[in-house]
Amino acid sequence: MKHFKTLSELHQFNGYPPPEHPMVSLLRCTQKCSFGSSEFTGDFYMIGLKKMKAGFIRYGRTKYDGDSGSMYFIKPRQVAEMRNLELEEDGFAIYIHEDYLSGHPLHSEIRKYPYFEYEANEALHLSPKEEQIIWALYRSIETEYNNNPDEYSKEIILGHVEGILRYSQRFYKRQFVNRSGLSGRIISRFTESLTKYVENGQLAKTGLPTVKFMAAELNLSASYLSDLLKQETGKTALEHIHIFLISEAKHLLNGPDTTVAEIAYSLGFDNPPYFSRLFKKEVGVSPNQYKKFSLN
């Protein structure tokens, strides 16, 4: 697998002209795009807008064949592959070396945008008006990028990049709302998978189900699943798992012959005190108090 430590290496490998800046690269793509067909990683972030007609983009676990305006976000050292891309319209890619963010607030802020953890098939689909906003920000970056650099250049470029990131966060939330029907089906499948996990005895065998495991069962990334559930229900995937297990615990606590510790272990908790704290947080009383009340 090819790893690019610098943007110059990326450009040279793909036959592009050298980048204007060693830490930032802007690529415009009209219709057919030439990318290396092998898997690669790099020490940079990539923000791309591409309306694909043919070819595919892959990062994370899945391959994405696209036919609409989509934005893609790739973080440093994430495995990616872009092959035989043919676009319906103009597209762009912004590459930012992680070292370029050093000393700037975006160095830590960029990690707070969860869509860098999404899979390719969870790309951001833009409306025409949203595309215009993103293109306007890109052109502002392009104008500054092609000017003679001075002490303000980095701040201005990263300010516009941050604008793209914030708008993308807003547009993703809109996408979740517009896909509320899909969200409802995912919630149902999520609950079905949890039920199956419990009924098959997986709690005793492998312990508590993780968000990553549940997401994989639904062919989603963990971050996308949590964000979708948070938007739809106000609770993350982990909170939904906890609520489900607390519901199971309530049922088991109605039995007179089981201790709280036994119930905790049966539900996959290695630490009964942690189970008790979680139960009290969700229910308002401790498991022992709940058990006492339920038996009276």
From TrEMBL:
SMART domains: HTH_ARAC
Gene3D superfamilies the UniProt entry points to: Homeodomain-like
The organism's place on the tree of life at top rank: Bacteria
Pfam families registered for this protein in UniProt: HTH_18
Keywords for this protein: DNA-binding, Transcription, Transcription regulation
Record domain HTH araC/xylS-type: where: 192-293
Presence of keyword Protease: no
GO MF term list: DNA-binding transcription factor activity; sequence-specific DNA binding
PANTHER family to which the protein is assigned, alphabetical: ARAC-FAMILY TRANSCRIPTIONAL REGULATOR, TRANSCRIPTIONAL REGULATORY PROTEIN
Protein's UniProt name: Helix-turn-helix domain-containing protein
Organism annotation: Larkinella terrae
